[in-house]
Amino acid sequence: MSNIAIVGAGFSGAVIARELASAGHSVTVFDSRSHVAGNCHTERDEDTGVMTHIYGPHIFHTSNEKVWNYIRQFDEFVPYVNRVKAIYNGRVYSLPINLLTINTFFGKTFSPAEAAEFMATLGDSDITDPQTFEEQALRFVGWDLYEAFFKGYTLKQWGLHPSELPASILKRLPVRFNYDDNYYASTFQGIPRNGYTYIVEKMLDHPGIQVHLNAPFQRGMAEQYDHVFYSGPVDAWFGYSEGRLGYRTLDFQVERHEGDYQGNAVINYCNQDVPWTRISEHKHFTPWEQHAKTLIYKEFSRLCGAEDTPYYPIRLVKDKSLLARYVDMARAEQKVTFVGRLGTYRYLDMHITIAEALDAASQFLTLEKGQQMPSFTVDPS
Ligand code: UDP
């Protein structure tokens, strides 16, 4: 039996804690915040009664059956399909780009085959191996749709021109030649009936786990443990000695209204001159609940300062060279494994975080005698 410290009570930390405690290890979880569940934290709003995603909307989706079965041990998932709308130049469109978007935008009644043929004429076929977000967009949707749906939104979201961002960001979104407006292509999708914090609390509710909230973990404390799983920011572990990795943070303007504010959970605002990126109306994430009042989040993105909550790792070239230095330092650490979005500085969805945490726990549990747990169980570069 080992004495394990886990830093961070988000999905990474909670999954590893649960797996290790179930195998008989003694686990202590530290989180500097006053609540568990990290940025997935949900709380019922006292005024409206709406289950609120405090750090912005989280919709669970995965095609990984193991992850789906794992998470459903801790709460029931009510089937939920995210159908996002986008407003551009005063008109409403369907996202991700699908046949309705194409037909509405161009005033056509294309069939799937006609739309595919039409889009092929719009896409820039000279771009054979798109590297940047902009190239990826121009290759597959052409200039007009790129300008409408991606350029302004992305400038607001990332504070950078799409020509400076990697194609991987846009690859998160499909383009469809049918009327399927399901935002995600994942096999399994749902919202936990009791919210994400309930799930994480249940994961951590085990006799082998002790949880300390409002409890920052200092690097020096690692000596007291056989091993540390650290899901905080990798640069913070080293006191930012090499400088800070770049993140985007979000500000939310929370408003409460009577009735139904926008008729949908998420509406994106794609014009650059609208200061927010999107508005989420949280009661639409729980359509099985009835609430007379409503709560909305207007979402604003900006560069993350020292006192802000980090959300999206920027991962530009300069961040990556800084990351490489921290990764070298991390690899030299004994007895510490860096996990999760902040520990590995990657843009991760919940289901990937959970899959990687399960994998890290299982690596630890199958170590041969005398074998060391690696500093990373995935490649953060
Ligand atoms: N994006 C965009 N317009 C939209 C939605 C998304 O340009 O209406 C871009 C934006 O750069 C964003 C990326 O596509 O960061 C990925 O979108 P996703 O919805 O996955 O972003 P998330 O929900 O993670 O913020």
Element layout with pairings:
Blueprint: E1 3-7, H1 11-22, E2 26-30, E3 42-44, E4 51-53, E5 60-62, H2 65-71, E6 77-79, E7 85-88, E8 91-94, H3 99-106, H4 112-122, H5 133-140, H6 142-158, H7 167-170, E9 188-192, H8 196-204, E10 209-212, E11 227-230, H9 234-237, E12 247-258, E13 266-269, E14 278-281, E15 293-303, E16 312-313, H10 317-332, E17 336-338, H11 340-344, H12 350-365
Parallel strand pairs: 1-2, 1-11, 2-10, 7-13, 11-17
Antiparallel strand pairs: 3-4, 5-9, 6-9, 7-8, 12-15, 12-16, 13-14, 14-15
Descriptive notes:
- The chain is α/β, with parallel strands linked by helices and about 375 residues long.
- It is about 30% helix and about 20% strand.
- It has helices spanning about 10-20, 65-70, 100-105, 110-120, 135-140, 140-160, 165-170, 195-205, 235, 315-330, 340-345, 350-365; strands spanning about 5, 25-30, 40-45, 50-55, 60, 75-80, 85-90, 90-95, 190, 210, 225-230, 245-260, 265-270, 280, 295-305, 310-315, 335-340.
- It has a seven-stranded mixed beta sheet with strand order 8-7-13-14-15-12-16. The protein has a five-stranded parallel beta sheet with strand order 10-2-1-11-17. Strands 5-9-6 form a three-stranded antiparallel beta sheet.
- Helix 1 (about 10-20) links the parallel strand 1 (about 5) and strand 2.
- Helix 1 (about 10-20) runs parallel beside helix 8 (about 195-205), helix 1 runs parallel beside helix 12 (about 350-365) and helix 5 packs antiparallel against helix 6 (about 140-160).
- The protein is globular.
- The structure holds uridine-5'-diphosphate.
- Uridine-5'-diphosphate binds near residues 154, 169 and 172.
- The site of uridine-5'-diphosphate has 14 residues, from helix 6 and helix 7.
